[in-house]
Design goal:
alpha/beta; 3-stranded antiparallel sheet; binds adenosine monophosphate
Length: 285
């Protein structure tokens, strides 16, 4: 039988539990999520268990990171299902604050990480990364973990959080985790639930296309040329392309011509669903 997971909803209840583990000499890893837990999230919990003695998972659908016309209200929420899955994966504690706990009346601080947040997803989603940086800074200060795990699925977000932690001297180690995919290559995402059966059939073309870009780049094809071809292929298949980009893997600066090390990143719309994905160059494995 799966053991129940303990749920706390306030910073006041969270801190003494973490302090007790610390006093017992145990290390703590935090896995921030917005719920709608899938195998990608659970892989982060597994990695966290490997890296620390105790795992805290946070579940908070952060209103600050959604634009006015985005899916904040429609975002899938099922705490009972999520908490059972997290317990089964071995998370020790679920921190599930409500919006009033995270942003009490009068809350006015925003965290802005600068240049890294303005490009790629930041260009299409103004203020999104300020919302992410603000809530992640708060979660790290509320939990004070030794380590925090973030997926490479949100590659730009991972780099922004690394920069945030470095710039503000937050004493935590940020660990990136590889992307978990369906058998057909589609990166797992809570938003995949929005896809119609027909869209779901087309969706894997996103990962296939950026994978092909990575193979072409490794074979010496110029970045600009590869990006144009990828965009054309995706549009022909029915995607609305936000961006396909070849970037420096640390700075996200644009790369042109032949490249040795890079990250291929893409964001597309399929019907009403926005999908993102990325792969390294050279490809791993
Ligand atoms: P979210 O609940 O979408 O905010 O995601 C919470 C964490 O899970 C983030 O660090 C994501 O990057 C990570 N994540 C989401 N999807 C995947 C995936 N398919 N593989 C690995 N990590 C993921």
């Amino acid at each position: 039988m799966t053991r129940a997971i303990h749920i706390v909803r306030t910073v006041q209840d969270l801190r003494p539990r973490i302090a007790a583990w610390r006093q017992a000499g145990e290390t703590v890893a935090l896995v921030p999520t917005m719920g709608a837990i899938h195998a990608g999230h659970l892989s982060l919990v597994t990695l966290a268990k490997d890296k620390a003695d105790r795992v805290v998972t946070s579940l908070f659908v952060n209103p600050l990171q959604f634009g006015p016309r985005e899916d904040f209200h429609a975002y899938p929420r099922d705490e009972a299902r999520d908490s059972a899955a997290l317990a089964a994966a071995g998370s020790d504690l679920l921190y599930a604050p409500d919006a009033g706990e995270m942003y009490p009346p009068g809350f006015s601080t925003k965290v802005n990480v600068g240049d890294l947040t303005e490009d790629l997803c930041g260009a299409a989603r103004p203020n999104h990364f300020d919302g992410v940086a603000t809530v992640v800074a708060k979660l790290l200060l509320q939990c004070a973990p030794d380590k925090a795990i973030f997926g490479e699925k949100d590659y730009q977000q991972l780099l922004i959080i690394r920069r945030l932690v470095r710039d503000l001297n937050i004493p935590v180690e940020i660990i990136g985790a590889p992307i978990v995919r369906e058998d057909d290559g589609l990166a797992l995402s809570s938003r995949n639930a929005y896809l119609s059966p027909d869209e779901r059939k087309i969706a894997p073309l996103l990962s296939q296309t950026i994978h092909d870009v990575a193979v072409d780049l490794a074979g010496g094809r110029g970045a600009d040329d590869a990006v144009v071809a990828a965009r054309f292929k995706l549009e022909a298949a029915g995607f609305r392309v936000d961006y396909v980009a070849v970037r420096d893997p640390e700075t996200l600066k644009p790369l042109y011509g032949p490249v040795k090390r890079a990250r291929v990143l893409a964001a597309v719309h399929l019907g009403k669903t926005r999908l993102i994905d990325n792969v390294p160059v050279p490809l791993a494995g």
